[in-house]
Specification:
The complex is a heterodimer of chains A (113) and B (116). By secondary structure, chain A is an all-beta fold. Chain A has strands at 5-7, 10-13, 19-24, 31-37, 44-50, 53-56, 65-68, 75-79, 88-95, 103-104, 108-112. The model of chain A has no long low-confidence stretch (mean pLDDT 94). With 116 residues, chain B is mostly beta strands. In chain B, the strands form three sheets. In chain B, strands 2, 5, 6, 10, 11 and 12 form a six-stranded mixed β-sheet that branches. Chain B is globular and about 45 Å long. The mean pLDDT of chain B is 93. Classes of the chains: A mainly beta (113), B mainly beta (116).
Chain lengths: 113, 116
């Protein structure tokens, strides 16, 4: 079946702009995760959804970052007033249930100029 | 706090050799899951192998096997008969099976290069 998909693949924006990154999980997976991977580092957890609700948003760095999953499937990560330090690869993963094996999408590379 | 340490930033071996990547972790929990993920230049994180902490038997997947030492909190990955396609970043990751953070905690990765 289809894996996790993410759009866009790459996004270039200017400092101060608003961006939205989309994640389409594997069909039937109730758990969805967002991670941020800076150059030369491992991914860092941002937020976890179980169904439609954000069950754990402890990894969001500040209130400029927000994510939604209104129908329990597709999720959107939203970043307001982008800063150059937000430049990174944003990875999405989904799993059948919480704490089960996570399957990752190809990521969105965000570059803030 | 949970931490995962990968002490080898980069390793290089010849094709067909066996290579072992090291990983240590720190947790106060007794039940958890450990993973190795591979990330080629395409950025796609691919699951290599998974280990449940309650299982004493080491997980294996074809040429990939782990040496899980629970008391030492060590989880190394052995790749046998290495192939050029194994060249990638390899990340060790951890998640508690009960409470605590829901997301995976990753190490910084090991860049594995397989030389022809």
């Amino acid at each position: 079946g289809a894996g996790v998909s993410q759009t866009p693949s790459n996004k270039v924006t200017e400092k101060g702009k608003y961006v939205e990154l989309r994640c389409d999980p594997i069909s039937g997976h109730t758990a969805l995760y967002w991670y941020r991977q800076s150059l030369g580092q491992g991914p860092e957890f941002l937020i976890y959804f179980q169904g439609t609700g954000a069950a754990d948003d402890s990894g969001l760095p500040n209130d400029r970052f927000f994510a939604v999953r209104p129908e329990g499937s597709v999720s959107t990560l939203k970043i307001q007033r982008t800063e150059r330090g937000d430049s990174a690869v944003y990875l999405c993963a989904s799993s059948l249930e919480s704490r089960e094996t996570q399957y990752f999408g190809p990521g969105t590379r965000l570059l803030v100029l | 706090a949970q931490t995962v340490t990968q002490s080898q930033p980069e390793m290089s071996v010849q094709e067909a050799e066996t290579v072992t990547l090291s990983c240590t972790y720190d947790t106060s929990e007794s039940n958890y899951y450990l993973f190795w993920y591979k990330q080629p230049p395409s950025r796609q994180m691919i699951l290599v192998i998974r280990q449940e902490a309650y299982k004493q038997q080491n997980a294996t997947e074809n040429r990939f096997s782990v040496n899980f030492q629970k008391a030492a909190k060590s989880f190394s990955l052995k790749i046998s008969d290495s192939q050029l396609g194994d060249t990638a970043m390899y990340f060790c990751a951890f998640v508690n099976s009960g409470g605590g953070a829901d997301g995976l905690t990753f190490g910084k990765g090991t860049h594995l290069i397989i030389q022809p």
